[in-house]
Specification:
CATH class: Alpha Beta
Strand content: 5-15%
Radius of gyration: 17 Å
Shape: flat
Distance between the termini: 38 Å
Strand order of the largest sheet: 1-2
Structural class: mainly alpha
CATH topology: Rossmann fold
Number of domains: 1
Helix content: 55-70%
Number of helices: 5
């Protein structure tokens, strides 16, 4: 969000991709199994969830910042696309998960993680 909200200059957020990749490479080279997941929620479902937070008392304490403001949707999508494209490597690939259905998404994450661990352990 730093990129979209102007908290970082282009050279700063551009450099961060290289720093992320270098850091993740260091982790993997030391034997860490790294799994990255992007849980995608479409605009309609995201809006429904944030509206629900307004009416369900125990959900009100959650941050509303995750909801892109009008005019931000395009820039947020662009930033996410760039991040995924520039930080998905052979050693640390992103797994994209459709997450409108929370339970289905959780199963997909666990299954992906199990497959990644099995591969790393030589199974």
């Amino acid at each position: 969000m730093e990129r979209v909200e102007g908290f970082a200059r282009p050279e700063e957020w551009g450099r961060s991709y290289l720093e992320i990749n270098d850091f993740e490479q260091q982790l993997v080279s030391r034997g860490i199994v790294l799994a990255k997941f992007w849980l995608h929620i479409d605009d309609k479902e995201q809006l429904r969830r944030f509206q629900e937070r307004e009416t369900v008392a125990w959900k009100r304490t959650r941050s509303a910042r995750g909801l892109a403001q009008p005019g931000e949707v395009g820039p947020v999508r662009g930033a996410v696309s760039d991040m995924i494209a520039r930080t998905s490597t052979a050693q640390a690939p992103w797994t994209l998960v459709a997450a409108n259905d929370k339970r289905w998404a959780r199963v997909q994450v666990v299954e992906s993680l199990c497959a990644r661990l099995e591969k790393a352990l030589g199974g």
